[in-house]
Structures are given as structure tokens and as C-alpha cells.
């Protein structure tokens, strides 16, 4: 049987990762058309190894609410492509790359055309996750950038929470951005993926957000949730730097991070660290929370501050702990100070809390 995107999608449904959704199947048909067009239009090079003008392949712009599978579908398409001339990244990371490259090309004539030609040599298709325009510099640049890339035959597949006509909706000098919207609509099919099922919520509802006892099974469940939320985003295991101090991590992406309790709740951490972390990350994993020893006042104080900051910031926290939240401070001589933290941790485990918070996290 031919190995199509729909075959792969059905395998994911059978594994229980997702539920079959007619709207997603419709989107897969669009992605399959792009896949087939790319496979029927191999890159041809001249003797000088310069790319000849490619036939423009019409791409795809999928938009809709968070948690409905846009990123999942794009990644399914991306990983099935059997060639290396493909690039998948968040749109904000792409624009950072563009600004960096343009700085290096200062003084050159038509730097956008130079950059577009270089990108076309490397990539036949670029997949953008979370296409959004908030910055006026990006907005003013996009029309010429898109025009240059489309002229070189680069195909785009993009996900967004926002319809093209609503991009940069209330931005300064928006009239200068309107031609960029016209280019998107000219070169990409626009589909509204309006599934009512939030698949992140479905998985977290099934798995929970608090795992005890803190054993191998708890770790595996946290790994599964992390993988489900992250998909194919770039993962780093390098320490992060917060307020000029390094913090070791288990792993992280652009908006999800996983800490060991001993790294995040021991001196020299401070409330300022937690505030900065809450600004940068939307979902936080904390592993190996112990029942707090009798004299662990500093650790208890930091733990309280961490939970207070994450709770007030509306962070979704996934925990593994030695015991239930209401028992973590039971042996500590300052247990009375922990009462509000226990209450907040209990609330953070409720579907009402994490479903409300997940609605603002643009993943999946």
C-alpha cells in the first residue's frame, strides 16, 4: 500500500496520540497535494550548480485556535518528505535569521534578492510554525521578502492562530503591510482548521499534571507529555542563563522547560529568577520534588516563591513528587507557611486551571 500522509495519520490515531478528525483529514489532502507536487518537481541544476528558475508550487497556510493539531499536521508532512532541502522553524526564529543575514549583507545591492537566492539553493520548502507579525520592522520587510522568495520558487507551509487578513491588524503603518497579505493569499492556499478538540488538553486530561510516587513510571509519563507538547520543536539540554547565573535543566524548547527540583529550588535561586522564567516559558516541568526535610527552611521558602510566581503568571506546571502535594511540607517545622502553596498546587492540578491556561499557549 502506498505510504501516504493519510496512512501515517491513521497510524497516529491507532496509537491513541490523536483522535481522527474530518477537518484534519481535509487538511492532509492539501498537504498531500503539496507533497506530490514537490516530488514531481525535482531540483534541476545547471553545469555551474546554480538553481534554475523553479516552477512555483502553491503552498498552504493553516490557521485556527490553539491545540487543534496544526503543528502536528505540518510536522507529519515535513518528516515524510524524503529530501534534505527542507526547513522547519518558528516564524519568529526565521525573522531573527533574516535580520541577522541582512546585517551581514549591508552595503550590497538588493540584499533581499541575494538572500532569497541563497535560501532557494538550500531549501525547496520552508515550514513556518506560528506565523504571526507583531513587529513593525518585520511588517515593513515582509512584502519584499516574500516577493523575493516566491520569485525563487520556494514553497511555504505555515501554521497560525490568525487568519491572513487579521495579521498585524492594529499595527503601525499597516497599509504598507497589506501587499504582504495579498502575496500570501496569491501563493498559498488558506484553510481554516476549526476543530473543536484541543489535543493537548485531551492528553493532559488523560495523563494528569501531578505524578506520585516519584518513580520510573512517573518519569515515563512526564516524558510522554513533554514529547506530545513539543512535537518536533528544537530541544536543548544546555544550561540556561537567568539573571546572569546559569541554571542546569533537563531539557527545554522555546516555550517549554523541564527542571530538576534540586536545581530550581536551592540557593542561589531567587524570586527574580522565577519571574524571569515565567516571562520566557509557558509550560514548566519540575521533577523529583521531595517531602521537605524538617530544617529545610531555605528550600521551603524558594519552593513557596516559585509556586506563587508560576501560579500568578498562569503557568502550566507538570510535577513529579515523592508524595501528594498536601504531604510535601508535613514534616517541616515551617509547614504552616506551606499551607497556601499546597492549596495552589492542588488547584494547579485541576482541569479548570490547566485548560484555561493552555488556551493561551500556542503549541500543537
Description:
This protein is of the alpha/beta class. It has 2 domains: 5-192, Rossmann fold; 199-358. 45% of the residues lie in helices and 15% in strands.
Features:
single chain, 364 residues, alpha/beta, Rossmann fold, 2 domains, five-stranded parallel beta sheet, five-stranded mixed beta sheet, 12 strands, globular
Task: Give a short summary of the structure.
The chain is α/β, with parallel strands linked by helices and 364 residues long.
Shape: globular
CATH classification class of the largest domain: Alpha Beta
Unreliable spans? 44-51
Question: By CATH's scheme, which homologous superfamily of the largest domain applies?
Answer: P-loop containing nucleotide triphosphate hydrolases
Amino acid at each position: 500500500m502506498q505510504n501516504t500522509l493519510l496512512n501515517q495519520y491513521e497510524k497516529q490515531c491507532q496509537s491513541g496520540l490523536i483522535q481522527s478528525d474530518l477537518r484534519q483529514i481535509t487538511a492532509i489532502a492539501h498537504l498531500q497535494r503539496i507533497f506530490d507536487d514537490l516530488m514531481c518537481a525535482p531540483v534541476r541544476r545547471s553545469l555551474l550548480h546554480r538553481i534554475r528558475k523553479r516552477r512555483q508550487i502553491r503552498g498552504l497556510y493553516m490557521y485556527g485556535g490553539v491545540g487543534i493539531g496544526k503543528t502536528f499536521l505540518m510536522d507529519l508532512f515535513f518528516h515524510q518528505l524524503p529530501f534534505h532541502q527542507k526547513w522547519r522553524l518558528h516564524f519568529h526564529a526565521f525573522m531573527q535569521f533574516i535580520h541577522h543575514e541582512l546585517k551581514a549583507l549591508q552595503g550590497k545591492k538588493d540584499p533581499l534578492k541575494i538572500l532569497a537566492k541563497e535560501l532557494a539553493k538550500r531549501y525547496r520548502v520552508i515550514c513556518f510554525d506560528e506565523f504571526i507579525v507583531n513587529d513593525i520592522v518585520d511588517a515593513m520587510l515582509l512584502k519584499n521578502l516574500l516577493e523575493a522568495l516566491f520569485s525563487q520558487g520556494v514553497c511555504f507551509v505555515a501554521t497560525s492562530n490568525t487568519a491572513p487578513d487579521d495579521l498585524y491588524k492594529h499595527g503601525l503603518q499597516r497599509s504598507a503591510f497589506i501587499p504582504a497579505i495579498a502575496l500570501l493569499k496569491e501563493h498559498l492556499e488558506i484553510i481554516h482548521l476549526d476543530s473543536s478538540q484541543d489535543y493537548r488538553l485531551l492528553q493532559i486530561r488523560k495523563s494528569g499534571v501531578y505524578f506520585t510516587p516519584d518513580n520510573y513510571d512517573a518519569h515515563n509519563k512526564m516524558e510522554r507529555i513533554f514529547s506530545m507538547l513539543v512535537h518536533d520543536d528544537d530541544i536543548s539540554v544546555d544550561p540556561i542563563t537567568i539573571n546572569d547565573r546559569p541554571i542546569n535543566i533537563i531539557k527545554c524548547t522555546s516555550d517549554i522547560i523541564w527542571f530538576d527540583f534540586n536545581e530550581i529550588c536551592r540557593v542561589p535561586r531567587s524570586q527574580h529568577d522565577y519571574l524571569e522564567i515565567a516571562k520566557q516559558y509557558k509550560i514548566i516541568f519540575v521533577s523529583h520534588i521531595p517531602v521537605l526535610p524538617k530544617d529545610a527552611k531555605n528550600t521551603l521558602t524558594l519552593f513557596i516563591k516559585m509556586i506563587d510566581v508560576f501560579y500568578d503568571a498562569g503557568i502550566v506546571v507538570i510535577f513529579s513528587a515523592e508524595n501528594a502535594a498536601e504531604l510535601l511540607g508535613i514534616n517541616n517545622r515551617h509547614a504552616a507557611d506551606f499551607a497556601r502553596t499546597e492549596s495552589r498546587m492542588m488547584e494547579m492540578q485541576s482541569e479548570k486551571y490547566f485548560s484555561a491556561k493552555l488556551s493561551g499557549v500556542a503549541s500543537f
